[in-house]
Design brief:
With 95 residues, this protein is α+β, with helices and mostly antiparallel strands. The chain contains 2 helices and 4 strands. The protein folds into 2 domains: 29 residues, no CATH class; 64 residues, P-loop containing nucleotide triphosphate hydrolases (Rossmann fold).
């Protein structure tokens, strides 16, 4: 793995590094709502859970509302959540 510095050209970054860079830039704006589109799509189960736990901490500690779009089943442990499913062109809440 190569080191990435502040003067590293963004065109030389991997897709994963670019995703992390975009997330960090977004977090620096202290958002009220953060939309994450498939944030765990390229990750194994363990690293996917790390991302999910970080999102939970943002909700719990910073009061950020997270809207996470995912094909994976995500079930936060520490914060209340709602699961919405798009099916046949309709949005349905799942329990």
């Amino acid at each position: 793995m190569t080191d990435v510095n502040l003067d590293t050209n963004a065109q030389t970054l991997s897709v994963g590094q670019l995703q992390r860079l975009c997330l960090i830039r977004g977090l620096l704006l202290h958002p009220f709502v953060l939309m994450l589109d498939e944030p765990t799509s390229g990750l194994d189960e363990e690293n996917g859970r790390i991302v999910e736990e970080a999102a939970e901490r943002l909700c719990e500690e910073a009061g950020v509302t997270i809207l996470m779009v995912s094909h994976r089943q995500i079930q936060p442990v520490k914060v209340p959540f709602r699961v919405l499913q798009i099916s046949n062109g309709h949005i349905e809440e799942r329990s």
